[in-house]
Amino acid sequence: MSEQVTTTANQGIKKGLLAGALALLLLALPGLVMAYPGGGGQPGMGAEAAPQDFDQATLQSFAVASVQLQEIQQEYAGRLEGVQDQDKAIELQQQANEKMVATVEEEGLDVQTYNAIANAMNTSPELHARIMAKIEAEQNR
User: Taking every annotated instance into account, which residue ranges of this chain make up the domain DUF4168 (predicted)?
Assistant: First the structure.
């Protein structure tokens, strides 16, 4: 009976860890990008950038990247749901993170700039509205 209790406890721990991994993946988009090693994205970094520091092309790139990041986030959240192995869950998180960083860079941004825009959005209602309009337009393409 002790072996069954241990097995049940281990399964509960694994499920808890996987639920935690899934929760991390579902956090705000900049959160995963900021976690990229060497990406220069420490929380709060770049928050001092004023909205006028970003030109329209940069904001458009941010909007395109944001839409793509949402798709990646949804894809990997779905893939993580069925995972029972903690190592596999960590591997999927790393893959998602790498894919998200590559997506940001493919749009002509670096991770630090992406995070600076995301932080500026949180402090500027006007910038937030402008970017959300661009994101909505991108989603409707």
Answer: 56-131
